[in-house]
Amino acid sequence: MPFPASTRTQRHLLTRLAAGLACVVATATAGAAEGELGQGAYRYHVLPGWGDVSAESIPLHDCHAMRMDSKGRIVLINNGGNNNVIIYDRASGKMLQTWGTTYPGVHGLQVVPGADGDHVWLTDHDRHQVIEATIDGKELRTFDWPEGHEPYTKKDQYKPTDIEFGDQGDFYVFDGYGQATIIHYAADAKILRIFGGKGDKPENLNTPHGGIIDRRDPAKPVLLVASRGQQAIKRFTLDGDYIDAIPMPGADVCDVFIFKGDLYVPNLNGYVSILDKTGKVVSNVAGSAPAYDPEGHLTKMSSTGDTFIHPHNLFVDPDGAIYVAQWNSKGTHPIKLERVK
Questions:
Q1: 255: CB partners within 8 A, 6+ apart
Q2: Which domain holds residue 205?
Q3: In 10 A of CB 241, how many CB atoms?
Q4: Residue 270 belongs to some domain of the structure
Q5: Which segment of 6-10, 73-77, 226-230 scores lowest on mean pLDDT?
Q6: 151 in any annotated domain
Q7: How many domains does the chain divide into?
Q8: Widest pairwise Cα distance in the chain
Q9: In a domain? residue 18
Q10: pLDDT for res 333
Q11: pTM over 0.85
């Protein structure tokens, strides 16, 4: 005989309470040691002084993105004024080179090998352009706003925030601060399709700030989009068809990086999330321990402590160290996190 409704409700509440208490106990007993950030097998400590440069001579303001070149150097983009691009020694954090004064809204970064060496691809939301340059700063090509393609009617509607490359030389531009679209270009810069856009449908986006092509299943690569305004990572086919979403409650997701099958996500509101191969959050670096309710839904996450100001982008090097670039960094240098063995 079924339980009466009131009894079923009580049993449900007791089950949820027990699960909640279990989460609290797990968090308390599985916490990182003093000075360590994150949970479980994904714990890190800050490497003091990495990348520290003189704020007077090399002002840092919005440190928007970091990548690594073919020489193993770390490349940072920054709109601090006289140093839009800064190149660091990966191990020591010593500044090796700076260039660029004409990129006031530099925001997205990719480093791509070319026949004549590495090329740097930048998105600039103030210039309303994508720019290709050599690793030493020689500008090669610019790509303007998608004139003549809906929903664009004027240049200042286009404010690109990131770029990602396909396997055939094609590329995707994330218009995170403009029309919330993803623009897919062929290798010859012809626009193939525009998808996403503002709205309330599942396939719509809100601040598609960055993303990556997920090649973990080589037979079915997909595009992962960090839709910050929706606190979700949305998945699309490479032809722009919506698949599904990974909810990230409490996380202002800015980008997605893949390392050894795991997803690394910088959250503008103060922490870095790491998701395993199944899409489950397994660690929040400088954030609350991830917890799932009895129905399997991720509960709201939050920042803890003051390690970060505004994590905006990150890169994971071959050793598993995380480099974090911060928006509105208040002059502070990027942060390098080394994984606890």
A1: 65, 162, 209, 210, 211, 212, 226, 265, 266, 312, 313, 314
A2: 31-339
A3: 13
A4: yes
A5: 6-10
A6: yes
A7: 1
A8: 78
A9: no
A10: 87
A11: yes
